[in-house]
Amino acid sequence: MNTVAFTLFAVIVLLTLGITYWASKRTQTTTDFYAAGRSISGWQNGIAISGDYMSAASFLGIAGLIALNGFDGFLYSVGWLVAYLVVLIVVAEPLRNTGRYTLADMLAYRLKAKPVRSAAALSTISISTFYMIAQLVGAGGIIKLLLGLQYEVAIILIGVLMILYVAFGGMLATTWVQIVKAVLLMTGTILLSLLVLSHFGFSIVEMFNQVSAQYGQSFLEPGKLYKNPLDNISLGLALLAGTAGLPHILIRFYTVPNAKEARTSVAWAMVIIGSFYIMTTFLGFGAALLVGQEKIKAADKAGNMAAPLLADALGGNFFLAFISAVAFATILAVVAGLVISAAGAFAHDFYSNVLRGGQVTEREQIRVAKWASIIVGVVSIILALLAKEQNVAFLVALAFAVAASANLPVIVFSLFWKRFNTAGAVSGILTGLISSILLVLVSPNLMEPDQALFPLKNPAILSVPLGMLGAILGTLLSREPEAERKFTELYVRSQTGIGAE
Amino acid sequence: MKTGSHNTDWEQIARSPEFRTLMKRKRRFMIWSVAFFSLYYFALPVLTGYFRFLNTPVFGSMNGAYLFALSQFFMAWVLAFLYIRHANRMDRLIEEIICKRKEKAS
């Protein structure tokens, strides 16, 4: 075992537990637990959003994809940033103006609370679970490679930590874990990029020339990883429309005091996320040139070790240990965000508002939320242990596809379409959710490529229109005067913030 | 909900000329920007997937495909900057609407 890595790893664990202890003393009300008491400022929330969003898949996965497949790896990076324009321009501010803790709050504003909250809780929990299993399985593998810990030990360690952060520290602890992680990740990535560039006289063109000389010009051209352009377009749609429907990102807008701060936080997040994803070029091509594809593939077939091996090659053992610790912190921050979004959907939407019709005291709701986060955490640990040998990359694609097909159309219709009603929201969420899951089940992700009934790896290109169609048909087949009457209230409030908490 | 939504006349605000101007300007920005970035964004997989001309090297080995992908980042930043500027102007309109309500109330 690498002792420097182990020390840094322990420092991160102690630091985040310290944050949790500090936050637990400040977490008394439901607003504290779900929304950090709305005490987070715009720029802090911006950093936390980046910390929540830049998962291990981005940091380790993209660097590996670029190192092994060249240009095509970079396509993901583009989608992950441009998607924030949808978040910024369409959803962030209206959502902050009309909700309290979860996505369903906005929907329940003018629609019937019970059916809408149940459907939204179902899609939130599904998305969080798909995303979380993918993160945990990836995490187990990576920590095993980096620290030599057994897969099972790594999963249980991360799982216990994430339960502690969320159950005791609530959203405040989760937010600060995300901020710490984002700062560490950016520091590590900037250092690595500068070291890579120094090898090429700080000339990006020179780096590209050497890539071309060693791997051929075709390595810099598209088509190596994705043979079917439609697959690319479908993935692009899932990323673009899915980000604005990801529940763990949406709940971050409730931690700031008002819509203006929500806007500021997306702007900050876009600066950080954009700079990070541009630097994936240096990490990826740097690893291809300075480590070599043979060595990267020997360590891990999928390329996940490209960035750590690059750190080892450029800065020796200490730098390798630092990058490993960053990867560990990354996983902790992302899974904590997922646990709190799933626990909120269960405790706030399903338990308090559906089962108990809103007749729950503050103390009881917090207790249920804490228990929900423990249960969500334990269930995902078990699922991740069972999924040990699975290739789970498709789960992340599925999470984005469900968010794009089930959540985004319903959010947009609810905010801008007067005629939209409860039947439309429920059928929209269910059609989007079921169609994206079914299409993935019969796709090349899980079937032999030549036998797959649906030829694309990502279902968004079909499931997003289906989700929209479900929402439109459900709306047109029933009338709900109450929802239409309350539309004006939601519309004025969402756009001006008048009456918002 | 501290301000209490019961005593707010939402219909009246919605009908006011100030709110209509606000929504006209908000919508115009939203529709044009969403149309623009969607076209720009999907141009990348379409142009690199179905055509080959972006593979031409531009600076040394750096080709058009990479430069176009890179330009997406700057497109997103510039559009976000324009949106923030626009939204800050909308904030001033919203403040006027709120001031007028208070005048009427008092």
From TrEMBL, chain A:
CDD domains: SLC5sbd_u4. The keyword Glycosyltransferase does not apply. The chain crosses the membrane at residues 6-24, 45-68, 74-95, 116-134, 154-176, 183-205, 233-254, 266-291, 318-347, 368-387, 393-417, 429-447, 459-477. One of its GO terms (cellular component) is plasma membrane. Keywords: Cell membrane, Ion transport, Membrane, Sodium, Symport, Transmembrane, Transmembrane helix, Transport. It holds the Pfam family SSF. One of its GO terms (biological process) is monoatomic ion transport. It is found in: Cell membrane. It is a multi-pass membrane protein. GO terms for molecular function: acetate transmembrane transporter activity; symporter activity. Belongs to the sodium:solute symporter (SSF) (TC 2.A.21) family. This is Putative symporter YwcA. It comes from Polycladomyces abyssicola. The lineage of its organism: Bacteria, Bacillati, Bacillota, Bacilli, Bacillales.
From TrEMBL, chain B:
The keyword Ribosomal protein does not apply. Coiled coil: none annotated. InterPro entries: DUF485. The keyword Flavoprotein does not apply. It holds the Pfam family DUF485. The chain crosses the membrane at residues 29-53, 65-84. Keywords: Membrane, Transmembrane, Transmembrane helix. This is DUF485 domain-containing protein. It comes from Polycladomyces abyssicola. The lineage of its organism: Bacteria, Bacillati, Bacillota, Bacilli, Bacillales.
